[in-house]
Design goal:
The longest helix has 8 residues. The mean pLDDT is 87. The chain has two helices and three strands; from the N terminus they run E-H-E-E-H. It has a three-stranded antiparallel sheet, with no helix packed on it. The chain is elongated and about 45 Å long. The protein has a domain of 38 residues. It is an alpha+beta fold. Pfam families: Nop10p. Keywords: Ribonucleoprotein, Ribosome biogenesis, rRNA processing.
């Protein structure tokens, strides 16, 4: 699933906070925008078990 909301790729250098847009370019500075969605879940992730273990209660 693809997200329609995009964020300025240079917001850390050019803006005080993230600038969101639906277009391919930032409306404030004209830099390219990038997808804001996280990477998809991969059940074959070799380090996923260790990451999940760190988030378990009682750890």
């Amino acid at each position: 699933m693809k997200s329609d909301i995009r964020v300025c790729s240079a917001w850390r250098e050019r803006h005080d906070r993230p600038v969101y847009s639906l277009g391919d370019r930032c409306p404030d500075c004209g830099a390219a925008t990038e997808n804001t969605a996280p990477a998809p879940f991969n059940p074959g992730d070799p380090y996923g078990e260790y990451r999940r273990a760190l988030n378990r209660p009682g750890r």
